[in-house]
Every structure is written in structure tokens, then in C-alpha cells.
């Protein structure tokens, strides 16, 4: 898929799979649930950012790399989707 073909549903599926893998979760994660309660820390968050940048061929600026900007799956999806828009 090229960057214009990614819709929020596709992005969410990818983000959810990466979050579950990074946090070693078996259960599903609600998109609006705070990931810190699942054990997300800044290290895990940055690992996800690298995966997102690589997979979606995007770059997050330094000022965007705040833990609270990636607190939920929905936050991540919205940020990625925004980067993919022309």
C-alpha cells in the first residue's frame, strides 16, 4: 500500500498488532484506553514510533515525541493518519 491508500481502519489494525507485540499482550486493547495501564513506558513508546516511521515511511518531529501524544491507540492512529495526508 502506498501512503494515500492507508485509511484509519488499516492503521488501527497495524497499531493494535504492534502495541500487543511490544507489550506482550494476549488481550485486545480498546483504542481509547490509556496504554500506561498495560505497562507502556517511554522506551516501549519510542520502539513503536520507530516501527511506525519505518512501516508508514513517515517522520515524527522531536517536539511530537511526547509520551502523552502516544498515550492511546487512538492517539497513535490519529497522529499517523495526519502524517499520511497530502
TrEMBL record:
Family annotation (PROSITE patterns): CARRIER
The Carrier domain, residue ranges: 6-84
One Pfam family in the UniProt entry: PP-binding
Classification via InterPro entries: ACP-like_sf (IPR036736), PP-bd_ACP (IPR009081)
Protein name: Phosphopantetheine attachment site
Organism expressing this protein natively: Paenibacillus algorifonticola
Amino acid at each position: 500500500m502506498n501512503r494515500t491508500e492507508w485509511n484509519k481502519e488499516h492503521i488501527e489494525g497495524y497499531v493494535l498488532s504492534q502495541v500487543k507485540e511490544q507489550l506482550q499482550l494476549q488481550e485486545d486493547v480498546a483504542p481509547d484506553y490509556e496504554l500506561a495501564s498495560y505497562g507502556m513506558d517511554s522506551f516501549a513508546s519510542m520502539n513503536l514510533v520507530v516501527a511506525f516511521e519505518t512501516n508508514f515511511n513517515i517522520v515524527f518531529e522531536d517536539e511530537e515525541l511526547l509520551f502523552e501524544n502516544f498515550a492511546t491507540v487512538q492517539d497513535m492512529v490519529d497522529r499517523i493518519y495526519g502524517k499520511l495526508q497530502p
